[in-house]
Design goal:
Helix content: 40-55%
Radius of gyration: 25 Å
Strand content: 5-15%
Order of helices and strands: EHHEHEHHEHHHHEHHEHEHHHHEHHHH
Largest sheet: 4 strands, antiparallel
Distance between the termini: 33 Å
Shape: globular
CATH architecture of one domain: 2-Layer Sandwich
């Protein structure tokens, strides 16, 4: 039976007087000292508040941060709205490692046969999730036993841990059939100005109904905490019919032809390098020289690149705190940018988009919806015929339900919720070498989500081919740290069990 509840929003933390804090910050700009919030008058609230907000001086509203607890919100809403821009922080419940014991999902305002079809699709997907979790457990366990050199004399406690890890690998893969309507929970923090912007844009994107419910409650709680924060300044939501995306012409009936053309361009890759500066290595070298006031005669390109990229010479590459943006030397990597065509599943891209300094033009699913099943198949499922049969059947069932909902007159916004995590997303992504270096270091680790790992390896291979002096020093933490600092692997007890550093990038990831 499907369990569904209204979104639950709690305000966990907030400044005592966020609006007065903004006015005090504004006054400090024109004062030889820092203005205290207790000095703010009603007249200043009225005059300075409107003056700063209406003139676009919005940084004063960025000092206040609001920490929310969000429950009973869909994965689709989080991907399409909450995580679709850079300026937030979230800690979200993971489907990779948390077993989904019962069907719990967002249900839009539909009724009659449409609601029956919708709820049946959600429950059926959960049944398939259970089937796949059981079918994949032995495969995952067999691979883990090989990777961790299990012998007849292996300690029982170690065997028990390996068995638990196999369970996690099985549910991590089985989750691909779970609908994007599935509930998630998180701690979500935004600044005051971002909350104003979210409220302004609440009708944009693929989930305006759910966004209005959740963001509306966030705004209500802040108004309750400090009425001034929205009473003295702010703008209401842009009406949906006036949004540029809403009025964009629809020139095709479905996204099937667009998806086929995009995949043909990828030619089997997860990620295809579309653009890169021809002289990226020279640009990086010149940037290093500009920092230290040197000429090519003082510092060659090879030496400059080696000093910034080689972890044996640049200790920032070994720092687990990622201080790159604070380092004058590392900021030389800002000026080489790479653009990729890419495809990932909805569930993988939900993780990929958390690399907020590597932005992407992600699809509006209401424009790119396909009439036929369009999904990613994880390798563990593809290698097990019984699991593959269950999986393919689950995909067909999801698209049948979505198409039936459309036949019943359900808006596409709501029908999309029954599609699975496996749904393929295609997009253009780009980033500076500085941002991509951090991402590639994390995501070429064998513990990274499988698709993001494969896409990152695709990207690294192509960058190495055109910019070998840059690419030779990129790899997972164990490769970067090998022979330089201990521990070699930063994953602790989660070490993958494979000595990747011995043969990267040729080493094969099996699980």
């Amino acid at each position: 039976m499907l369990s569904t509840e209204a979104p639950k929003v709690t305000l966990r933390n907030a400044p005592a007087t966020p609006f007065d804090g903004a006015i005090a910050a504004a006054r400090t700009c024109y004062s030889p000292r820092v203005i205290d919030t207790r000095e703010i008058t009603e007249k200043q609230r009225d005059s300075i508040g409107a003056l700063t907000f209406d003139a676009g001086h919005h940084t004063v509203y960025q000092h206040a941060h609001f920490e929310f607890g969000l429950e009973n919100v869909s994965r689709q809403f989080v991907w399409a709205f909450l995580h679709s821009y850079p300026f937030y922080n979230s800690e979200q419940s993971s489907q990779r490692y948390v077993k989904l014991k019962e069907p719990r999902a967002f249900v839009p305002p539909i009724c009659g046969e449409a609601r029956d079809v919708y709820e049946a699709a959600i429950v059926k997907a959960w049944d398939r999730y259970g089937e796949l979790s059981a079918l994949l457990k032995d495969d995952a366990l067999g691979i883990l036993k090989e990777l961790r050199y299990v012998q007849p004399t292996t300690n029982p406690a170690r065997l028990k841990q390996i068995d638990k890890d196999a369970d996690k690998r099985a549910i991590e893969t089985a989750r691909y059939v779970i609908p994007i309507a599935a509930f998630t929970s998180m701690v979500h923090t935004v600044s005051g100005i971002v909350l104003h912007r979210l409220y302004r844009m609440v009708n944009s994107g693929d989930t305006p109904h759910e966004a209005r419910l959740v963001i509306g409650e966030m705004v209500r709680l802040v108004k309750e905490w400090d009425p001034y924060f929205f009473e003295k300044v702010g703008l209401g939501p842009i009406e949906g019919e006036t949004l540029p995306e809403t009025t964009f012409p629809r020139t095709q009936g479905s996204g099937d032809s667009w998806a086929a053309a995009f995949d043909a361009r990828l030619s089997g890759r997860w990620s295809l390098l579309r653009d890169a500066p021809a002289h990226a290595e020279e640009i990086v070298a010149e940037s290093v020289r500009s920092i230290f006031g040197l000429t090519p005669a003082d510092l060659s390109d090879d030496e400059a690149i080696d000093r910034v990229m080689n972890p044996a010479r640049n200790r920032y590459r070994l720092d687990i705190l990622n201080v790159s943006y604070h380092s004058p030397l590392m900021r030389a990597l800002h000026h080489a940018n790479y653009v990729f065509d890419k495809r990932l599943s909805h569930t993988a891209d939900s993780q990929d988009q958390r690399h907020r300094m590597v932005p992407a033009s992600r699809p509006l699913m209401t424009f790119s919806d396909t009439s036929r099943p369009d999904y990613i198949t994880p390798r563990l499922i593809a290698s097990n015929p019984r699991a593959r049969a269950v999986y393919d059947r689950a995909m067909q069932e999801a698209w049948d339900a979505k198409n039936r909902l459309l036949e019943l007159g359900v808006p596409l916004e709501f029908a999309l919720y029954v599609l699975p995590n496996a749904k393929t997303l295609r997009f253009v992504e780009s980033g500076s070498l500085l941002a991509l270096l951090h991402k590639w270091t994390l995501r070429t680790c064998f513990n990274a989500q499988e698709e993001i790992y494969l896409a990152s390896m695709d990207e690294l291979e192509q960058v190495r081919a055109i910019h070998p002096r840059i690419g030779r020093h990129i790899g997972p933490p164990c490769v970067v740290r090998n022979g330089l600092i201990s521990p070699r692997c930063t994953e602790g007890s989660h070490f993958c069990g494979v000595p990747v550093w011995r043969d990267f990038p040729a080493v094969v990831r099996r699980l």
